[in-house]
Amino acid sequence: MSHQRIEKVPQPDRVRSYFRLEARPLALVTVSGILYNVGMVAGPYFEGQLAQCLFDIMKGYKTVSAMVSLAALYLSVILFVQAMRAVKRFGVRRFANDTSRNMRHMLYNSLVHMSREKLEKENLGSVMTKAVADVDACVEGMRKFTTEIFDTGVVLVAYTAMLFSYDWRLALLSCAFTPFAYLISGYLKGQVAQSNAAYKKSAGRLNGATMDRVSNAVTYRVYGCEQNRDAAYEVRLGDYEKRAVAANLWENTMQPLYNIISMCGAVLILYLGARNVLGTGWKSWDIAAFTTFLSCFTKMALKSSHAAKLFNAVQKAQVSWARVKPLMKEYIGLDAVSPPDITRPAELTLSGVSVGWTDGETILQDISLSARPGQIIGVTGPVACGKSTLGKAFIGEVPYCGSIRVAGRELRDLSHCERSRLISYMGHEPELISDTLAENIQLGEPGEIEPFLRTVCLDEEVRQMPQAADTPVGSGGVRLSGGQQSRVALARMLYNARSVLVLDDPFSAVDRGTEQIILKNLKALAEDKIVILFSHRLYQFPTFDQVLFLYDGRGVFSTHEELVQENPDYAKLYLEQVNGGGGHET
Question: How far apart are CA 337 and CA 214, in angstroms?
Fold first, then answer.
């Protein structure tokens, strides 16, 4: 779906917005639904006429040709009615498909633009349940509601009008049982909502346990914890099965009871309607009238019992809607913001920056630096000094105080989309998608990837793969080595390079020789970019333009040479690595 179509969704946290968006298919449903359901009364009418015609043929009052003519007319009417039914069903299905698509786009867009801090508070299993099962339940409830407005509401009015036209007293008596089915359904709606809410929560817990079992299978196997995790999973599965049975029990097993209650009026029709035929009742009927009335009532009773079930289905959908509603927010797209000018090289300035998590203590404070296009800024410090935290501040995952300005614009004032137009980021984890190697680099933007594979020294290895760049990397890049995963992630960042490149330990999984080649290529490729390179391996730092050394929650910004001469902590860290040949963080 295009962004333009999605932006037409007014107030995505309101159900009626999705009905308004699908005005055309709903108009088709309205016209065809009225014609179809009003035409449904033709069935009981013609059934009565056919019964009367058969009786007259047996008595010799009519010939078989009369029956054939009546049957042909009945068939023509039914064909038209069923054609209207097909049109209505098509319109309802079109409405449901479009609504499902719109809801999923709004939900996924909200999740994609949610901050990592908020996203991590959402249980993964619960998110999966909301994105799949809850949206399906919402759409199914809306579909049933739209369908039953006509298949139950309109047809009930038509059937009731026909019954009253034949005998209003008998119609009142026979229809008196139907409201009891509605009362029971209304009484049970609280139980239906409660059982479905418990079922949804259990489904979320089971999905979370499933993801944990799959994602950490190797870890559990190595440490011999598989049996314990299997036992925990079985507990979740057992709870899910119990909740699912309870939810379906209250929703579906009451249907026969609704049918029985609604059909009780047939007993009165058989007795009082027979008296009408005999001429001793309230009306004088022939066989056609009796058959029409009985057929009309049985069809109406079944439809009314379906309406009682619809109440429970809508209640179930309301439970799901309450779960996804907080995630239904205005659509955010690149065309919804004013993108910054990325055609000119941008400068970067940090002034008095302090960073830390919202609910935690400040990790770094009073950090200042400046960089121009073409410069590489190295950022280092002891273990757990806050390097990665500072890196995440550039992409809005960690809040900061002070000022971070890129191309003259304050970073905190930019939307996620605007920030992505200025800054490219590569974190500790490669975060590869389950697709081909080429798609992991291009991310849907067609172009030549060979230069970027050469930059990260991956071109020869890719050529030797079974399908070259079209080789699937597996879930999370499992078919690649650690070094290959990090280099694919680096190639992706360079392919989509912006004005500022933030690299958090990009060479931790490659050897020293490969790192030197990649760094040399990086300098040539990013000559009009600013590169902020976070690393604990310092033997390349003498080649960088400036260095930010983080220590005891603060930062010192200078050249490598000046830091070696003036900062004992930096000098010690650097000399230990150079003289000891180290460079791997412990």
Answer: 39
